[in-house]
From TrEMBL:
It comes from the Bacteria. This is Vitamin K epoxide reductase family protein. It comes from Streptomyces achmelvichensis.
Amino acid sequence: MTTAAVDDVSSDERADGSTRTIGAGRGFGWLLVITGAAGLLASWVITIDKFKLLEDPSFTPGCSLNPVVSCGNIMKSEQAAAFGFPNPMLGLVTYGMVIAIGAGLLAGARYRRWFWLGLNAGALFGVGFCTWLQYQSLYNINALCLWCSLAWAATIVMFCYVTVHNVRHRVIRVPEGLRSGLLEFHWMPPVLWIGIIGMLILTRWWDFWTS
């Protein structure tokens, strides 16, 4: 996927980068819709299973496959309700909003700078929260949830490309060399990020995977 396909330059962007409103290419709109849908699906499935678990403490979620890949252990943990309610309920709202923003872009919507900064801040919070959950899952809860992993990957890709979009349109200003490198190799941050998580999962339970 090329940078241009992900994020077309707005027609009203002036040479100094100042804009009244900023749009995006169809590729970026679809990326928001797809990553939002992936996160929403994961949140929906986890929420349904959480309700079933509350009704029947002996219920075993379908993604509890073995002692390591055990969604049930994740759902029963304190970290699964970090804000006093099940975490996936937050995902139902936020990922739904991302889908709506992506759909708006596909329909030709254009947003002001503060809107894009707000989206970037929300994506930063989301990826930060996912990183905390990843640590808790690997090193405190000692279990892995496949649906959670899908939401993690979707959030990482979403955050990376929202940031690329904002750097491209100078909503976020960075040195020109860094900007050029990020636009040319925009695929590297999400690939390396997800790859590192995969390696951590592999090494954390190496004895189990190889037994």
